């Protein structure tokens, strides 16, 4: 709360709370889209089809690692 009060006073009011939001969204939105897309595509590739429920932990770790690297 102290930090919020300080930002409200010194950074131009409520606008100061949202400073840097646009660049952050410009990074996060496409990055998350790529990450989830790669994760799902990798799981489907490793399972050989749409049903990915039978994948083991190693396959999920591999898919997650590739997805994180794509971010």
From TrEMBL:
It is a multi-pass membrane protein. InterPro entries: MCP_dom_sf (IPR023395), MCP_transmembrane (IPR018108), Mitochondrial_Carrier (IPR050567). Keywords: Membrane, Mitochondrion, Repeat, Transmembrane, Transmembrane helix, Transport. Its main location: mitochondrion. GO terms for cellular component: mitochondrial membrane. One of its GO terms (molecular function) is L-ornithine transmembrane transporter activity. Pfam families: Mito_carr. Solcar repeats lie at residues 1-45. GO terms for biological process: mitochondrial L-ornithine transmembrane transport. It is found in: Mitochondrion membrane. Signal peptide: none annotated. Belongs to the mitochondrial carrier (TC 2.A.29) family. This is Uncharacterized protein.
């Amino acid at each position: 709360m102290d930090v919020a009060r300080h930002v409200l006073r010194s950074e131009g009011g409520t606008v100061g709370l949202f400073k840097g939001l646009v660049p952050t969204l410009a990074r996060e939105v496409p990055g998350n889209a790529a990450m989830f897309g790669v994760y799902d595509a990798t799981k489907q590739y490793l399972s050989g089809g749409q049903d990915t429920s039978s994948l083991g932990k190693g396959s999920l770790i591999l898919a997650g690692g590739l997805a994180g690297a794509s971010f």
